[in-house]
Amino acid sequence: MRVNFNIFKDNISWDALIHQLNSDVLLRHVLVKGNVVDRNIDFSYCDETCQGKIINSNNQLIGNFSTSF
Prior knowledge:
By secondary structure, this protein is an alpha+beta fold. It contains one helix and five strands, in the order E-E-H-E-E-E. The protein has one helix at 23-33; strands at residues 2-7, 12-17, 42-46, 51-55, 61-68. The chain has a five-stranded antiparallel sheet with strand order 2-1-5-4-3, with helices on one face. A hairpin with a 4-residue loop joins strand 3 and strand 4 (51-55). It is globular.
């Protein structure tokens, strides 16, 4: 599965190939490439739209991601 990440700060975007969609995998990618300071990041995902949100510990939307197969 391919995941396209977008971090709003500094307008950072990248694609990654992953084998399993879970918060640990998503967090690892965001921490390595997303240039984020806050390590307490949550993710929400909608199966119908194949899109998700990246939310920091202050419950602020800091980015989004989408999946394709």
